[in-house]
Specification:
The complex is a heterodimer of chains A (about 325) and B (about 180). By secondary structure, chain A is an alpha/beta fold. Helices cover about 30% and strands about 15% of the residues of chain A. In chain A, the strands form three sheets. A five-stranded parallel beta sheet of chain A has the order 2-1-3-5-9, sandwiched between helices. In chain A, strands 4-8 form a two-stranded antiparallel sheet. Chain A has a two-stranded antiparallel ribbon with strand order 6-7. The radius of gyration of chain A is 22 Å and the shape is globular. Chain B starts with 20 loop residues before the first strand and ends with a helix. The chains are: A alpha/beta (about 325), B alpha/beta (about 180).
Chain lengths: ~325, ~180
């Protein structure tokens, strides 16, 4: 249909949850296709890469790209969609911050390949065959995308205009974003399309958050009977609310689970993990080195806790080695 | 403080590498101690850039990570001895954060000797000298961390496609023009 603005959806290193979130619009998806033409969406529609290549430059109003960038193919597609789009939107935590795939930056590429193709208990690979970018098979050359050394956020590969945070973003946020894009009243380039306040501000348990926390130990949600009304930090859980952007309507807290930080930091914070560490650790009760160590030991995986979604986009980006 | 004997390197592959330490010193104790060391004409290694903060409890872990990310080989935090904090408990906050931050740094492959917290009171000019000299010696043994150069190295894997895209864009531009 001529005249209607066109959009593309694409996925890179992601779980598919962001694609689900588009379907979570439910019948609202009919409103979406009423407003825009979807010209490319591999998970749901049969357009090919060649269709995108044939589009004139900047002919798409917007590309919503979810997932981190960790293979040469994902990098190519990100660059291709960048060229074909007026706006590129990092859709979801992985595209915005690296997300769960970004935790791969704690390891070296060879280490990851060895685990996945040799050491994993469910893998049988006696010849230790690893994926190769090029292989000869009966005189034909077969190619595979190359796994990059580093997992990247979308913005570390191509310029990104806006981000929609979340793991995944809520359908309401997608709807609002599309409406905003179509209205032409666009926020400043680089904006995150969500409120710029900490989640604690929107939390239904806000009133029970003490001004002075004195944490003796950190509890884990699956080992703790949780009070469904009281601030989770006050109950000794690592709730990322203080260092995480609001906009999710505190979905996890309403489900009696602590925030794990998927909306990323507010605009005033450069490194979400460091900010959360700062806020949480200064509030522990212990005051001697061994006691502090004992309290901190109740967080068994600090990188995976404080940087669950933001390692690839963090100040240090990736472990510098050595690899085992 | 002693004067630098040579110009600090600019971060782009220095011909002769010298360790660089970013030091956050609290206004009330360690900064005053560094001042005392200077007034007393004590000589210590020149590899340290001191940033005065009001309290060791003011040192946001982001400052430490950013210092490393921008090329520091080591980060040193200096504060008042426990019990002596001008703000009563700022240094307790500092030590709690430092202990957790150390675990994060280990996870990211940054050795313990690159990150140090010391309590140095206003009268301990000598300790400023000893700590800086000792840290510089340890950093020399470890060699450069050089995160900015590492970041560049990692991003070299993006270069081939970047160049291809630019070449193609030029070609499209030539046809259009």
């Amino acid at each position: 249909m001529p005249g209607k603005p066109t959009v593309a959806f694409y996925w890179c290193a992601s779980c598919g949850g962001c694609e689900e979130s588009v379907l979570d619009l439910a019948e609202g998806i009919l409103d979406l296709v009423g407003m825009v033409d979807i010209r490319f969406w591999p998970v749901a529609m049969d357009f090919k890469r060649s269709d995108v290549e044939a589009m004139p430059e900047r002919s798409l109003l917007a590309s919503m790209i979810n997932g981190a960038i960790r293979t040469s193919e994902q990098e190519e597609m990100a660059r291709l969609l960048r060229r074909k789009s007026q706006l590129v939107i990092a859709y979801g935590a992985c595209a915005q911050l690296g997300g769960i795939p970004g935790l791969g930056n704690q390891f070296g590429r060879d280490q990851i390949l060895r685990l996945a193709y040799e050491d994993c208990p469910s893998v049988q690979n006696p010849d230790k065959v690893l994926p190769q970018p090029k292989t000869q098979d009966n005189g034909r050359t077969v190619t595979l995308p190359q796994l990059h050394q580093v997992v990247r956020t979308l913005a570390q590969v191509v310029p990104v205009d806006y981000s929609l945070p979340g793991c995944p973003p809520t359908p309401e946020m997608l709807q609002q974003a599309i409406t905003r894009l179509l209205s032409g009243e666009l926020p400043a380039k680089g904006s995150v399309l969500a409120p710029d306040i900490a989640l604690c501000e929107q939390c239904p348990r806000k009133d029970s958050k003490p001004t002075d926390l004195r944490l003796e130990e950190f509890k884990r949600p699956h080992l703790t009977r949780l009070d469904p009304q009281k601030c989770l930090l006050a109950q000794g859980l690592v709730c990322m609310g203080p260092a995480t952007r609001g906009g999710c309507e505190a979905a996890c807290v309403r489900g009696n689970m602590p925030c794990s930080g998927c909306f990323g930091p507010t605009s005033r914070v450069k490194d979400q993990g460091a900010k959360m560490l700062s806020s949480l650790c200064s509030n522990i009760a212990a005051s001697t080195e061994p006691d502090i160590e004992r309290t901190l030991a109740t967080i068994p995986d600090p990188l995976g806790t404080f940087y669950r979604y933001s390692l690839a986009g963090s100040l240090l980006r990736k472990r510098v080695g050595p690899w085992t | 403080m002693s004067q630098p004997t040579e110009k600090p390197s600019n971060g782009n592959l220095p011909a002769k590498w010298e360790p660089r330490i970013v030091a956050f010193f609290c206004n009330w104790c360690t900064y005053t101690a560094a001042d005392l060391a200077g007034v007393s004409r004590m000589k210590h290694a020149h590899n340290v850039r001191i940033i005065r903060v009001m309290c060791s409890g003011r040192v946001d872990p982001q400052f430490v990570l950013e210092a490393f990310a921008k090329g520091a080989d080591g980060v040193l935090i200096g504060g008042c001895h426990i019990g002596d904090c001008h703000y009563v408990e700022g240094n307790y906050k500092a030590i709690r954060r430092v202990q957790m931050l150390r675990r994060i740094l280990r996870g990211m492959g940054i050795q313990d000797d690159r990150f140090r917290l010391e309590w140095i009171s206003a009268s301990e000019g000598e300790k400023v000298k000893l700590v800086i000299n000792d840290m510089v010696a340890k950093l020399r043994a470890l060699g450069p961390l050089g995160l900015p150069r590492r970041f560049q190295g990692w991003d070299r894997e993006l270069a081939p496609l970047e160049q291809a895209v630019q070449a193609e864009a030029k070609e499209v531009g030539a046809h259009a023009g």
